[in-house]
Structures are given as structure tokens and as C-alpha cells.
Amino acid sequence: MKKIFLIMSVLLIFLMGCGQGKKETTVFTVLNGAEPPTLDPALSEDNVSHNILLGLFEGLLVYNPQTNNGAPGVAESWTVSNEGKTYTFTLRTNAKWSDGTPITAKTVVDSWLRTLNPETASPYAWMMGMVVQGANEYNSGEAGADAVQIKAIDDHTFQMDMVGPIPYVESMLPHTIFGIVPVHTIEKFGDKWTLPENMVCNGPFVLKEWEPQDHVTVVKSKTYWDAENVKLDEIVYIPSDDNNTRLNMYKNGEADWMFQGMPLDQIDVLKQRPDYQVIPQLATYFYEFNHTKPPFNDVRIRQALSMAIDRQTLVDKVTRGGQIATNEVTPPMPGYVPPEGNGYNLEKAKELLAQAGYPDGKGFPDSTILYNTSEAHKIIAEFIQQQWEQKLGISISIENAEWKTVLARGKEQDFNILRMGWIGDYQDPNTFLELFQTDAGQNYGKYSNPEFDALIRQAATMPGGTERFNVLKKAEQILIAQDQGIAPVYYYVNQDLIDLTKWGGWYTTIMGWHPPKYIYKK
Amino acid sequence: MTKYIIRRLIGLIPTMFIIITISFFIIRIAPGGPFDKDKRYPPEIIKNMEKKYHYDEPILIQYARYMLDILKGDLGLSSAYPDHDVNYFVSRSLPKSVFIGIIALCIAVISGIGVSIISAAKQNSWIDYTAMSVAVFGITIPLFVVGPLLMYICAIRLHWLPTSGWIDGKYGWVTLIMPVITLSLPYFAYIARLSRASILEILRSDYIRTARAKGLSEPVILFKHVLKGSLLPVVSYLGPAMAGIVTGSVVVEKIFRIPGIGHFFVQAAFNRDYFLLMGTVIVYAVILLMANFIVDILYGFLDPRISYK
Amino acid sequence: MKNKNQHQPEHQFNQSIKRTSLFLDAVRRLRKNKMAVAGFIIVVIYAVISLSAPLLPIHSYKFQILDHRFLPPSIKSAGKILLERERARLLTQAKNAGRDTLLPDELEKLETYEQKLRSDTTIKDGKPIRTFGRIYLLGTDSLGRDLLARIIYGGQVSIAIGLIGSITSILIGTCIGAIAGYMGGKTDYLITRFIDIMYSLPYMMLVIILMALFGRGILNLFFALAFVSWLTVARVVRGQIISLKNSEFIEAARSIGAGNLRIVFKHLVPNTLGIIVVFTTLTIPNFIMMEAFLSFLGLGVQAPFATWGSLIQESVDGMDLFPWRLFFPAITMVLFLFAMNFFGDGLRDALDPQLKNKL
Question: Does the beta carbon of A35 lie under 8 angstroms from any beta carbon of chain B?
Fold first, then answer.
């Protein structure tokens, strides 16, 4: 056996030697979390495909690599008019597809209409509906394509009318759902247009290979308008959802960037590494209460339970990855500081519990925490279970199920306490707060407070600025302090392994988007 | 014989039909649908997506449509991976699983039977006990431990092998070593133990006693009379085992990044990706039925007492 | 252990004929087999320990002391280990700064750390308990729970699953396999097709549906296991029976007018017992690990209760850093399986119809 290994390793060294003999190309290997479900910008709904699409396509706006706000992409510049409700974009003249076809304002209109077309069945079309006037009507089949208020004024001027003044629209527009797609090849190849042999792109990279479950390889585009500033020659995205394997690959030098999914047991060691990057993320981990059934329809119970969770100990000693303990649901954002929620306060918790009729937890009905199966969710639930048991005298059991079962049970309010998390779609408190409106789909616990709903609706009509933030802040105060509609636990962090002494142009950002255009080898 | 084979093959069609029908309906009962995601979409969007996959039609019409599609050789669209259809995934990934599965199976069968002969011949010797211990370890320690352990030792500690990947990657064939070892270990253990027990059983039987009485030499007895008969339980076991191993072990594929079909079995079930799941069920069922069919034919060769009418 | 006897021909002259029931006879022979007895004793010890877990002087399987997480196995108290760790840390720090000994203020820091450790208490069930002197023989897990207690408690479910899985698979699998093999023809065809269908149905979805309908009880877990456990056994037994049913001794039994049932269960099945027993002892770990898979879907025991399967599963990611978390549950299982194997082999020899009435 040893001999075989020896021969193999000699062979290996030989093979690797051959690779180095070639002309120097800069290859960047990314451990992407899973197999990308799609490379069609209109159908993408997850960060795995989003990561790849950031290199393949360029929308009107792109993510600024350092702030993840909107920056000029295909649109060179834009003007806002009509009280912030109309955007007029000037498109750059040298933008074209990788087959040479130029991109005009008409391409943008056609792309967006394709995304909204009910037959495309785009899952994120709702996001366009939040912005573009008439988009929802067309997407739901109530009106025709002409209802959508976007138009090509001339070849290089594109105009859209919005449903209202949306102050955060510029941080939404780089999202792939607003992407520009090659309508001319889609007409030709239909559903098969994203296969490597058919696909044309307008971003800094073009698709070279896509072998399902194995790899996606993209190479530098020659037709990209800013090609001279693209430093990487090739990016290989490896779809693996086995975190242990991913980490081993990274440690072994088989990959350059691993994002998310660090095995929990390895965290303490990983934290010591210089190439371990941890950045607060625009995402919150929380427990939802079932407001439709006792005892969790009693605000005192909810507050008592929330106040008995020692979140700081949880993030320091259980999750350990640098997560930030929080009593609030919205992570701090530029200009917005969330109001203070109910923190760890054991005395108060016991008092509230007694007031609600369960002194020292006596007679508290059987309840469970429902979570989707995962090692991290499990030990967090175990920790919180012990907190409640030892500190309040309430014994609550914990229960896991696979994700779809959890979602199905959530939809039917078939739970007592439900673990949930939310990653913000754009940088504005609204992406978190709108989840808890009475009729919002994501509101599994059926939290309902008309005052809260009214404030969210009011904010939607206001122009950006402190005043709007104050309204949202008041809404959040009702949600998390007054009503304790949910129990926030911590803000997620982006955990990345990337050697920043070797790679440049990769910045730590709250949204966690790292456009590959800017990444270079030092 | 030929008549028997043909009759059996035709007999597989109704079985296939039953499997497809039952599966088609039960997977729809499971809680959660293909479009229940982290983000809960507005009903209009769900409606559009359901329309695309015809999930909005009555279930019997969907069933009829699906059966017609299968007859045409079309396994439908994947709802979790909308860019590809199920045929594409199956045609890409099944050959890889079959390839690695057959290698592992050959290794398991050859080494398993080899070890069993030695340990049966030297029953209760140290060789026997060592072989048994390896087998017990091989079965007790699950694949999801053996795989990472091998990877840790061979790739991280000793740097002998790359961690994972398929043969067309930059490391070539060496990537197959660890997954094949991992995959074959439990099958090796089963085969070794089953075949040893069976050899011992036969060594005690009347006809071997007769052979001994006739004065035949031990090796002749062992190889000519004992081995052939003793393969019977191994072959019975191999029917389902083969179907399992060539349609890909989810665990091994996940750990060593083998782009095989095993991954889709689990992923499709978790995603409630109905047509992809049906596709994997059909692939598995076809292979299983064929494997069991071959096993039944082999019985006749291994044991002349078995006759088919 | 088998002796050389089997190589000697058996005939009516060297057998002492003594009428005795098959069962008593088997027990008598089983008791003579030392390895089998040892195996049996180990299995009994396992069962007794895990069943009497609440009475044993061990820690709680679920009480967490977060400061004691990831402690290695040791006979030293947790407080001492933490103290040594801190001293070692300070020493390396000092070494890096070019010193061989600790500075006075560092010693003082150590002193206060010790004071703190010694006085540390945590609330358990309403009473404060000191944490310094706790000893974890097999180490602790990621939440500072005692691994020994978790393995012992985990045995309760895991052993039950192993045994129930194998017993149901023997009972159902042998009966159905034997009937299919013996009857042949239409019956065989229908049974084998039924088995094929059972194999092919998407098991994971069945389990998910089962849970949605009946909840996640331990009985449902057993049912989910029993549902598929017998399939391979049935196929193996069927193969054996097909081969045996044309043997001379079956012809003989038939010619003296033995009924079908008698032939199958009195003559055919005992002759395939060796294979059945080996196969079943081999599948025990499968059932134990399958529990871990089923608990991934949410079926079966709930955290913080542990099983051997879940202990092994959750230790894989950290096996280079905390090897004891993998090693001890794994070795517990291996030992159990060895015992079951020896016991099984002994059982098989004891029940061997060819050795009936032999001393």
C-alpha cells in the first residue's frame, strides 16, 4: 500500500509540476457553498448563484466592493426627478455582450420585462415589484407588459418610474434581479441559454465550464468595457456543502477563499489564523413566538423568556465565531441605530413570569423550540433550553426537523417557539421590519399590532432621511421592546477564510458581496 | 432458460409501474412544497412558478402527463435547478457513480472473498481473528467517520493525496483512492463475514464429508466444491448492495466531492424537487430490479440444485 | 469456540442419543462456548449499565457547564486542568518574551484565577454547586457536558435500536424469505416484487410523511427501522432456501409426510441460521447509525438526549482537535459489536441442527 502511495505522490508532484510550466495565469478558487441552482439572473434567489453572477453579469448598477452600495455599472450616470420617484439612467456606449451585440436601453427594457413575465416565473420578481411602477400588475397577470413604467428614451437612456420615493433603491439595483440578460440568445436557446456553449455575458467574466456538482469555471471576458482593469484570468467555483471537506481543501491550499460554514468545533482554532476574516453581517438570528396560542400570546411570557437568555454568554461560549449578541432585530446601518430592546434581566423575568401566573415556572404548559436540523441551531437551542430550565424553572423541549417540514409547520402555526433567521436583501431597516407586518408571509408567529403596521406603511411613503428612520425606529421599538413580538438572539457574522496578504481587492462588507472584478493577486 | 429470462424481464414492467405510481403520489403528501423557501414569496409569484411546472393542475392530470413523458424518455424539469432538466443530471452524474461504484464493488468482492477463504481455512487462528476485527471495525465505524479520517490522515497530515474531487480535475486519478477505499470498506466487511460463515456451513455438510471420504485434497475441496456453493448468500446480498453502491453513496460523494447521482437523491428529497426525486427513484429502481434479476440467474449457475422452470 | 470435532465424520455410532429439546440443548452447548459466554456477559453488562444510568454516580447527561467545554479525558478535576492550561499559556507567553519563569504579577494573576476557579459555582436545579472538583473521566463536549454520562445514557436508545432492528429483521425477514424461497412460483414472484418495491420507494420521504402523520415518538422510530430492516435478510434467506429445498434431507422429510410449515421452520430455516445470525449481527451498527440519520430528519429521540450515533456524528468535524469525543463512543460501539458477534457465532453453533444431541 505504501508503495502505491509513493508512486501516486510522485505522479502527483509530476502533474503539479506540469501545471506550473504553463504561462502564468491567475486562478482564483472559491469554495462556493453548494451547487448553484441557476445562472439565470432572473431565477437566482440564493447567494451561491449570486456569487457567480456577480462576475458574469453587470446590471445598471453594480456593488461597490467596499461599501456594497450601488455604483455605476452599465449605467454611467443617473438623475432623479419627480420627487425621487423617477430615475433616468445614461447607459455607457461601449457596453456589449460577449458575442459583440451592443447593449442598449431597449435591452434593459426587454430584460426587465422578461424577468417580470409570469411565464419566466421569477422567484424574486417581488423585489422589482417593490420598486417599479406597474411591475406587480404585469407579474401577477392583471395587466399587460405595457403597464410596466420603464422605457427606452433613446438608445442610451433608460427611465423608470417607481411606486414611491424609495431611498434605498440604489442599494437594491445591483441585485441580480435587476440584471440585464441577453434576450437575443434566450430567444434562440430557450431554457438552455445558460449552458456554457450557449451563454453570452456582459460582465467582467464569461462562463467556460459548468459541470454540475463539480465546478463552475469562468474566464476573463475580452469584450468587457473595462477589461483592462480585470486582474483575474480565471475563477473556479467549487460547489461543496460538506464544511469539513471545504475547510480541508482550504487548509491544503486547494482553494483560495472559503466563505461561511466554518465547522463549529474548529472555530476556536480558526479564530487564531491571520487569514480568518470576520465581519458583522446584515442578518439576524431570532426566535419567533406563536402569537395565536397561549401561553405565548401573553406579552409578559414573551418578555420573561427573552429576558432570561444570556445572549452574551451564548455568543462568547457557544457560537464563538464573533457573532454579536443583540436584543434588537435590525442590525445597525449607516444612519440607523436600532432602539434598545429587552436585555438580560433575570429578576424582571422572574417577576413577569410570576405575574403571568407561573411563579418559578410552576404549571407552565409543555412547549417546544422548533428548529431546522443543524449542529449550530441544536447547541444554541440546548443552551437556551438550559437557561430557561435552570433560571426560570420552565422545562421546554427542543425539536428538530428538516427545513421544508419546519417551513410547512411554521406556515400553519404548528409550533410554540420557532428558530428563524433573516438576511437583509438591501441596506435598510425596512428589509427586516416589513417581515413582521400582520399579513406578511414571513410572519410565521402571526405577530400583529396595527400601530406597528401603520408605522411601516407610513415609512414607505416617506423620502429618505432621519425623519423616516425615526418612524422605523418607533416601529422597531414597538416590535421588540413593547410587544416582544420575537426574541432576537444575535447578529450573524460573515466568516471568511482568505489570505489578504496574497489577494487584494477583497473588502470586508456588511452585505458580504465581493465582486470578483476587483480581486487581484498581490 | 431464454424463455425464463424473457418472462422475468417482462415481469419487471408492472413492478416498475407500481413503484413509479406509488412514489409519484406519496412524495406529494410530504409537508412543504418545492417553493417553500427561506423567503416566503407572495402568492402571485408562487402561482407563476407552479404554472411553469404544472403543479397547479389536478394531480391525476399531472400523473398522466408524467407517465406520457416517461414513455417518451423525458424525466421532466427540476424545480430546484431550473437551468437543467432531470435527464441532463442523470446522464451526467449516473455514469460517474456507476464507475466509482463498480470499482469499489470489485475491490470489495475480491478482497472479501479472498479474506473469507483464508479465515475459514484457518478458522480460529490469528488470521481469522484479525480479519474478523477488521470487518467489525469496517462495519461499525460509519462512512462519515472513515471518510474524514482518511482525508485527515492522507491529505492534511501526510500530504499524500489531494483532499477531494473528480478525475478530470487538476489532480487526476489519485483523487479516487480515498473514496474507493471508503466506499468498499463496509461491503468488504459484509462479504468477508457472510462468505466465511457460508464456507463453514458448507464444510460441515454431507457432500463435503463425502468428498473428504473419497480422499480429495483440501484445496480441491475448498475451491471446487465449497467456494461455489458458499457464494450464494454473498450473491443474494449483492443484489440490493449493488443497486446501493452504483447509484452512489450520498455520504462518500459529499465528502469527496464526487459529482455523482447520490447527492441528488437526498438533495431532491430535501428540496421537494418532485421530478428530480422521481428521476432518482426510477434510476434506482431500474438498477435494483436488474441487479436482483441477475442474482436470480446467478443462483442457477452457483447451485445446480436450483432449477428454473 | 468450535473444536476440531467438526472435521470428524458424525454417524450414529459416535452420537449419544438423548432426547432433549432443541432449546435446552442449545443453551447447554452455548454455555460451553467461552467466547460466546464472554460476549453475552458484555452485552448484559452494557444493558445493565445503561438501564441503571440514573442510579449510577455519574454526572447529568445534559447539564452544561460552559467553562468546562472540550475538556480532555482525565482523572484530574476540571479546575486543575483549567489551571494548568492557564499556567501553560502564561509560560508560553513568557517564553515568547524571552523569559523562563513567570513574573510576580503573572503569578498573582494565576493565584487569583485559582481563587476564582475554586469559588466558582453554578446553579443546578435551584442549588448552587461548586464546579472546581468535577472530574470528567472521558472528557466533555462542546457545551461542557460529561461524555461518560452521555455515552451511558446514549446506550439506552442505541442498544434498544440495535436489538429491535435485528430482531424484527430476523423475524420478518426469515419468515417472508423462507416462504418465498420454499413456495416458489407465483408466491415467490409476488413476494420478491413486493420486496423490490419496498426497496425502491423513497425512504426519506416515507419517514418525513410518517413523522408528519404520527409525530416523532420513539415507537415511530422503531417502526421506521423495522419497515425496511428485513428486506435484505429476506432476500438472503430466500436464496439459501431455494438452494436447500431440493436437498436429500428435505426429500426425506417430505417422503415421511412432514407438512410444509414443519419443513420450512424445522428443517430449512435452522440450516440457514449461520448466515442469518452473521448477517444480523452485522446490521446492528447500521441500525444504530441509521438512528442518527433519522434524527436528522427529526425522528426519534430529542436533544439534549444523546445516542451513540448522534455522539459520533457530532464529533466528526472536530476529530483532530477533540479526538476523545469520537474515540470513546466509537470504541463503545465496536466493543458492543464484538460482543454481539461472538455471542452470535456461539448462538449459531449452538443452534446448528447438525450438531444436535452431540455432546
Answer: yes
Strand spans (E) along chain B: none
Same domain, A178 and A286: no
Give the Cα separation of A109 and A91 in Å (integer): 12
Q: Do A399 and C298 touch (CB under 8 A)?
A: yes
Distance CA(C65)–CA(B168), nearest Å, equals 49
Helix axes B2-29, B274-302, angle to 10 degrees: 150
Q: Based on the structure, what is the number of domains in chain A?
A: 2
Compute how many other C-beta atoms are within 10 angstroms of the C-beta atom of residue C358.
Answer: 15
Helix axes B86-121, B126-140, angle to 10 degrees: 160
Which residue, among A208, A213, A159, has the nearest Cα to A48 in the 3D structure? A213
In DSSP terms, which residues pair with A287 in a beta bridge? A419, A487
**Residue A518 C-alpha from the chain's centroid:** 20
For chain C, give every domain's residue range: 76-130, 147-355
- State the chains in contact with B (3 or more Cβ–Cβ pairs under 8 Å): A, C
A375 CB neighbours in chain C (<8 A) are 314, 317
Dihedral of alpha carbons B57, B61, B67, B71, sign: negative
User: Are A284 and A228 contained in the same domain?
Assistant: no
Q: Is 70 exceeded by the pLDDT of residue B308?
A: no
Cross-chain CB nearest to B148 (options A119, A125, A244): A244
Please give the Cα distance from A454 to A438 (Å, whole number): 10
Instruction: Tell me the domain boundaries of chain B.
Output: 2-71, 93-302
Per-residue pLDDT tens over the stretch A448-503: 999 999 999 999 888 888 899 999 999 999 999 999 999 999 999 989 999 999 99
> Cα–Cα distance between B105 and B93 in angstroms, integer?
18
What 3-state DSSP class applies to B88? helix
Expressed as residue numbers, the domain containing A398 is 278-495
Q: In this structure, is residue A28 part of a structural domain?
A: no
Strand partners, A78: A89
* Residue recorded with cell 406556515: A411
Confidence of residue B25 (pLDDT cuts 50, 70, 90): very high
Whole-angstrom distance, CA of residue A329 vs CA of residue A314:
17
pLDDT for C101-150, tens place per residue? 778 888 888 888 888 888 888 888 778 888 888 889 898 998 989 999 99
Place of cell 471576458: A221
Contact yes or no for A444/A413 (Cβ under 8 A) = yes
Look up residue A285 and give its amino acid.
Y
Q: Do C202 and B26 touch (CB under 8 A)?
A: yes
Separation CA C326–CA B145 (nearest Å): 9
Q: Does residue A314 sit in the same domain as residue A382? A: yes
Measuring CA to CA, which residue among C257, A370, A215 is closest to residue B164?
A215
Of C66, C303, C322, the CB nearest to A378: C303
The verdict on B196 touching A (C-beta cutoff 8 Å) is: no
ipTM of the complex: 0.89
Judged by CB atoms closer than 8 Å, whether chains meet at C285 and B140 is answered as: yes
Cis preceding-peptide flag for A295 (omega within 30 of 0)? yes
Query: Are A329 and A396 found together in one domain?
Result: yes
The three cell numbers locating residue C62: 445534559
Residue B30's contacts (CB-CB under 8 Å, 6 or more residues apart) are A404, A405, B272, C205, C208, C209, C212
CB A455 within 8 A of CB A489: no
Q: Does the beta carbon of B190 lie under 8 angstroms from any beta carbon of chain C? A: yes
Tell whether domain C147-355 is in CATH 1.10.3720.10.
yes
Q: So what's the architecture of B93-302 in CATH?
A: Orthogonal Bundle (1.10)
Question: Is residue A482 a part of any domain in this protein?
Answer: yes
| Alpha carbon C288 to chain centroid, angstroms | 6
Judged on CB neighbours under 10 Å (0-12, 13-18, 19+), A22 is exposed
Find the helix or strand (DSSP H, E) in which B163 lies. none
pTM of the full predicted structure?
0.89
